[in-house]
Amino acid sequence: MISRPSPFQPPRLAAWLVDLFIPGEHAESIPGDLLEEFSEIAPKSGLTYARRWYWRQSIKTIGQLVRAGFRAAPWLIISTTVVGFLLFGFGYSLPEKLIDAVLEFRRHNVIPYYTQREMNAHMFWYATVVMTGRLLFALIAGCIVAIVAKAREMVATLTLSFVYFAWIAAAWFNLARHWPDRTLPLPFVLTDFAQVVLIAMGGIVVREVRRAARGRWHSSV
Known about the structure:
221 residues; single chain; mainly alpha; 2 domains
Protein backbone atom coordinates (compact mmCIF):
# COMPACT_ATOMS: atom_id res chain seq x y z
CA MET A 1 0.00 0.00 0.00
CA ILE A 2 1.20 3.49 -0.78
CA SER A 3 2.08 5.61 2.23
CA ARG A 4 1.93 9.12 0.74
CA PRO A 5 -0.23 10.83 -1.90
CA SER A 6 1.03 10.49 -5.44
CA PRO A 7 1.13 13.42 -7.90
CA PHE A 8 0.29 10.92 -10.67
CA GLN A 9 -3.30 9.76 -10.93
CA PRO A 10 -4.42 6.64 -12.84
CA PRO A 11 -7.29 6.74 -15.37
CA ARG A 12 -10.47 7.17 -13.36
CA LEU A 13 -12.60 5.09 -15.73
CA ALA A 14 -10.21 2.13 -15.54
CA ALA A 15 -10.08 2.33 -11.75
CA TRP A 16 -13.87 2.52 -11.56
CA LEU A 17 -14.32 -0.50 -13.85
CA VAL A 18 -11.97 -2.60 -11.75
CA ASP A 19 -13.77 -1.52 -8.59
CA LEU A 20 -17.07 -2.81 -9.99
CA PHE A 21 -15.76 -6.38 -9.99
CA ILE A 22 -13.86 -6.41 -6.69
CA PRO A 23 -15.51 -8.43 -3.90
CA GLY A 24 -15.80 -6.77 -0.51
CA GLU A 25 -12.86 -8.57 1.08
CA HIS A 26 -10.47 -7.11 -1.52
CA ALA A 27 -12.05 -3.67 -1.79
CA GLU A 28 -8.84 -1.90 -0.74
CA SER A 29 -5.98 -4.29 -1.46
CA ILE A 30 -6.41 -4.67 -5.25
CA PRO A 31 -6.86 -0.94 -6.05
CA GLY A 32 -4.03 -0.16 -3.63
CA ASP A 33 -1.64 -2.57 -5.35
CA LEU A 34 -2.48 -1.18 -8.80
CA LEU A 35 -2.05 2.39 -7.59
CA GLU A 36 1.29 1.60 -5.95
CA GLU A 37 2.71 0.06 -9.12
CA PHE A 38 1.31 2.90 -11.22
CA SER A 39 2.94 5.47 -8.93
CA GLU A 40 6.29 3.72 -9.35
CA ILE A 41 6.05 3.44 -13.14
CA ALA A 42 4.81 6.98 -13.87
CA PRO A 43 7.94 8.90 -12.69
CA LYS A 44 10.26 6.50 -14.52
CA SER A 45 8.44 5.94 -17.83
CA GLY A 46 6.10 8.90 -18.09
CA LEU A 47 2.43 9.39 -17.39
CA THR A 48 1.27 8.29 -20.85
CA TYR A 49 3.04 4.94 -20.61
CA ALA A 50 1.83 4.47 -17.04
CA ARG A 51 -1.77 5.10 -18.04
CA ARG A 52 -1.55 2.57 -20.86
CA TRP A 53 -0.02 0.11 -18.42
CA TYR A 54 -2.85 0.76 -15.94
CA TRP A 55 -5.48 0.08 -18.60
CA ARG A 56 -3.79 -3.21 -19.58
CA GLN A 57 -3.56 -4.29 -15.97
CA SER A 58 -7.16 -3.24 -15.32
CA ILE A 59 -8.45 -5.41 -18.16
CA LYS A 60 -6.32 -8.31 -16.98
CA THR A 61 -7.49 -7.84 -13.39
CA ILE A 62 -11.15 -7.75 -14.44
CA GLY A 63 -10.69 -11.03 -16.32
CA GLN A 64 -9.08 -12.60 -13.26
CA LEU A 65 -11.88 -11.32 -11.00
CA VAL A 66 -14.55 -12.72 -13.32
CA ARG A 67 -12.86 -16.14 -13.33
CA ALA A 68 -12.45 -16.00 -9.56
CA GLY A 69 -16.14 -15.14 -9.20
CA PHE A 70 -17.10 -18.24 -11.17
CA ARG A 71 -14.80 -20.45 -9.15
CA ALA A 72 -16.00 -19.03 -5.82
CA ALA A 73 -19.75 -19.31 -6.52
CA PRO A 74 -20.44 -21.30 -9.72
CA TRP A 75 -23.93 -22.40 -8.78
CA LEU A 76 -24.94 -18.91 -7.73
CA ILE A 77 -23.87 -17.51 -11.10
CA ILE A 78 -25.57 -20.31 -13.03
CA SER A 79 -28.82 -20.08 -11.06
CA THR A 80 -29.04 -16.29 -11.36
CA THR A 81 -28.37 -16.52 -15.09
CA VAL A 82 -31.14 -19.08 -15.49
CA VAL A 83 -33.52 -16.91 -13.46
CA GLY A 84 -32.66 -13.88 -15.56
CA PHE A 85 -33.12 -15.77 -18.83
CA LEU A 86 -36.50 -17.06 -17.66
CA LEU A 87 -37.46 -13.49 -16.80
CA PHE A 88 -36.73 -12.50 -20.37
CA GLY A 89 -38.75 -15.43 -21.66
CA PHE A 90 -41.68 -14.15 -19.62
CA GLY A 91 -41.23 -10.45 -20.21
CA TYR A 92 -39.97 -10.18 -23.80
CA SER A 93 -43.47 -9.83 -25.26
CA LEU A 94 -44.98 -8.23 -22.16
CA PRO A 95 -44.93 -4.64 -23.53
CA GLU A 96 -46.87 -5.70 -26.65
CA LYS A 97 -49.42 -7.59 -24.56
CA LEU A 98 -49.97 -4.63 -22.26
CA ILE A 99 -50.39 -2.21 -25.15
CA ASP A 100 -52.77 -4.57 -26.96
CA ALA A 101 -54.81 -4.96 -23.77
CA VAL A 102 -55.08 -1.19 -23.35
CA LEU A 103 -56.06 -0.68 -26.98
CA GLU A 104 -58.63 -3.45 -26.79
CA PHE A 105 -60.12 -1.91 -23.66
CA ARG A 106 -60.37 1.48 -25.32
CA ARG A 107 -61.97 0.12 -28.48
CA HIS A 108 -64.81 -1.73 -26.70
CA ASN A 109 -65.05 -4.10 -29.66
CA VAL A 110 -65.39 -1.19 -32.11
CA ILE A 111 -62.71 -1.11 -34.77
CA PRO A 112 -61.92 2.53 -35.62
CA TYR A 113 -61.13 3.74 -39.09
CA TYR A 114 -57.61 5.11 -39.63
CA THR A 115 -56.27 7.05 -42.57
CA GLN A 116 -52.88 5.98 -43.89
CA ARG A 117 -51.21 8.88 -42.10
CA GLU A 118 -52.93 8.03 -38.83
CA MET A 119 -52.00 4.37 -39.25
CA ASN A 120 -48.33 5.27 -39.80
CA ALA A 121 -48.34 7.47 -36.70
CA HIS A 122 -50.12 4.74 -34.75
CA MET A 123 -47.51 2.12 -35.74
CA PHE A 124 -44.64 4.51 -34.99
CA TRP A 125 -45.82 5.14 -31.43
CA TYR A 126 -46.68 1.49 -30.96
CA ALA A 127 -43.15 0.43 -31.94
CA THR A 128 -41.61 3.20 -29.82
CA VAL A 129 -43.51 2.17 -26.70
CA VAL A 130 -42.71 -1.52 -27.28
CA MET A 131 -38.99 -0.84 -27.69
CA THR A 132 -38.92 1.43 -24.64
CA GLY A 133 -40.71 -1.22 -22.60
CA ARG A 134 -38.19 -3.86 -23.62
CA LEU A 135 -35.28 -1.62 -22.67
CA LEU A 136 -36.76 -0.86 -19.25
CA PHE A 137 -37.46 -4.54 -18.69
CA ALA A 138 -33.83 -5.40 -19.50
CA LEU A 139 -32.61 -2.88 -16.93
CA ILE A 140 -35.03 -4.21 -14.30
CA ALA A 141 -34.03 -7.82 -15.04
CA GLY A 142 -30.37 -6.88 -14.66
CA CYS A 143 -31.11 -5.25 -11.30
CA ILE A 144 -33.01 -8.33 -10.09
CA VAL A 145 -30.18 -10.66 -11.10
CA ALA A 146 -27.60 -8.39 -9.45
CA ILE A 147 -29.60 -8.26 -6.21
CA VAL A 148 -29.87 -12.05 -6.07
CA ALA A 149 -26.17 -12.48 -6.91
CA LYS A 150 -25.16 -10.44 -3.82
CA ALA A 151 -21.44 -9.62 -4.05
CA ARG A 152 -21.13 -11.08 -7.58
CA GLU A 153 -23.35 -8.50 -9.28
CA MET A 154 -21.20 -7.84 -12.32
CA VAL A 155 -20.18 -11.45 -12.93
CA ALA A 156 -23.82 -12.56 -12.88
CA THR A 157 -25.13 -9.75 -15.08
CA LEU A 158 -22.30 -10.08 -17.59
CA THR A 159 -22.96 -13.81 -17.82
CA LEU A 160 -26.64 -13.14 -18.47
CA SER A 161 -25.69 -10.47 -21.03
CA PHE A 162 -23.50 -12.96 -22.88
CA VAL A 163 -26.18 -15.68 -22.86
CA TYR A 164 -28.86 -13.26 -24.01
CA PHE A 165 -26.57 -11.86 -26.72
CA ALA A 166 -25.95 -15.37 -28.06
CA TRP A 167 -29.68 -16.12 -28.01
CA ILE A 168 -30.83 -13.00 -29.89
CA ALA A 169 -27.95 -13.24 -32.37
CA ALA A 170 -28.96 -16.83 -33.16
CA ALA A 171 -32.62 -15.79 -33.43
CA TRP A 172 -31.97 -12.95 -35.88
CA PHE A 173 -29.52 -15.07 -37.88
CA ASN A 174 -32.08 -17.86 -38.12
CA LEU A 175 -34.74 -15.37 -39.24
CA ALA A 176 -32.46 -13.91 -41.91
CA ARG A 177 -31.52 -17.40 -43.14
CA HIS A 178 -35.09 -18.64 -43.50
CA TRP A 179 -36.52 -15.38 -44.90
CA PRO A 180 -33.64 -13.84 -46.88
CA ASP A 181 -36.05 -11.69 -48.91
CA ARG A 182 -37.30 -9.89 -45.81
CA THR A 183 -35.57 -6.81 -44.41
CA LEU A 184 -34.79 -7.13 -40.72
CA PRO A 185 -36.42 -4.35 -38.68
CA LEU A 186 -33.32 -2.37 -37.71
CA PRO A 187 -34.89 -0.52 -34.72
CA PHE A 188 -35.94 -3.80 -33.12
CA VAL A 189 -32.55 -5.40 -33.85
CA LEU A 190 -30.77 -2.47 -32.21
CA THR A 191 -33.20 -2.59 -29.28
CA ASP A 192 -32.50 -6.26 -28.71
CA PHE A 193 -28.75 -5.68 -28.64
CA ALA A 194 -29.16 -2.57 -26.47
CA GLN A 195 -30.82 -4.83 -23.92
CA VAL A 196 -27.51 -6.68 -23.60
CA VAL A 197 -25.88 -3.47 -22.40
CA LEU A 198 -28.77 -2.58 -20.09
CA ILE A 199 -28.56 -5.94 -18.31
CA ALA A 200 -25.00 -5.10 -17.30
CA MET A 201 -26.13 -1.57 -16.45
CA GLY A 202 -28.54 -3.11 -13.95
CA GLY A 203 -25.56 -4.75 -12.25
CA ILE A 204 -23.75 -1.41 -12.14
CA VAL A 205 -26.79 0.32 -10.61
CA VAL A 206 -27.12 -2.27 -7.84
CA ARG A 207 -23.37 -2.28 -7.21
CA GLU A 208 -23.24 1.51 -6.86
CA VAL A 209 -26.31 1.62 -4.61
CA ARG A 210 -24.80 -1.01 -2.32
CA ARG A 211 -21.46 0.79 -2.24
CA ALA A 212 -23.16 4.07 -1.32
CA ALA A 213 -25.12 2.30 1.42
CA ARG A 214 -21.92 0.79 2.83
CA GLY A 215 -20.27 4.20 2.76
CA ARG A 216 -23.14 5.76 4.70
CA TRP A 217 -23.05 2.91 7.20
CA HIS A 218 -19.30 3.23 7.78
CA SER A 219 -19.55 7.00 8.17
CA SER A 220 -22.27 6.61 10.78
CA VAL A 221 -20.31 4.08 12.86
